[in-house]
Design a protein that fits this description.
Layout: H1 9-20, H2 25-40, H3 44-51, H4 55-68, H5 88-103, H6 110-121, H7 127-136, H8 153-162
Length: 174
């Protein structure tokens, strides 16, 4: 039977170097699968036992190595924005007028940004979509202070002590 993996010195050195630079566990195991066959000449069953894979998976990796070469080690990452309405550049362009207003000291609401987003995409989207968009672009929620910076705490405490009896605080008499 013809061997799918040739164990010549340059190939082994290239695989060993790539093994050191492996970025993920799955990439590391794929390289090991080919490297063990190239260096030790182990059978697919032995390699499968070492890696905790099935023999069929090892056969698939070896035949893919023969066809595709080192491309089999490029493992796609999970996650990503697969269902995006706008690209990051389009999102940035959408936020430009709002950035200008915010830098000028204007107050922005999510409802305004949501309306602009809906007009640009032509789709009805949830408010959470806009909140995630703002978070992606480094925005944060800024709200007014709970009390005025020039408030006189002593005067407020004195007023509470001298308020008329018989009326609940905060309600006007009558």
């Amino acid at each position: 039977m013809k061997s799918l993996i040739v164990g010549d010195k340059p190939t082994v050195e290239r695989l060993a170097e790539r093994l050191k630079r492996a970025g993920s566990h799955s990439e590391y195991q794929r390289i090991q699968c080919v490297l063990i066959r190239a260096t030790l000449g182990s059978s697919a069953a032995e390699i499968a036992q070492l890696l905790g894979w099935s023999t069929a998976t090892v056969h698939v990796m070896h035949s893919r190595w023969a066809k595709e070469g080192e491309a089999i080690f490029e493992v796609g990452r999970r996650g990503g924005r697969r269902h995006q309405h706008l690209t990051p550049e389009q999102e940035k362009a959408l936020l430009v007028p709002f950035v200008e207003r915010a830098e000028a000291g204007g107050m922005l609401t999510v409802a305004e940004i949501l309306q602009a987003y809906r007009e640009q995409t032509g789709k009805a989207v949830a408010r959470s979509t806009v909140y995630r968009l703002l978070e992606r672009h480094g925005w944060r929620k800024v709200v007014p202070r709970p009390r005025h910076p020039k408030a006189d705490v002593a005067a407020q405490a004195a007023f509470k002590k001298t308020s008329p009896r018989g009326t609940p605080r905060g309600l006007a008499p009558g």
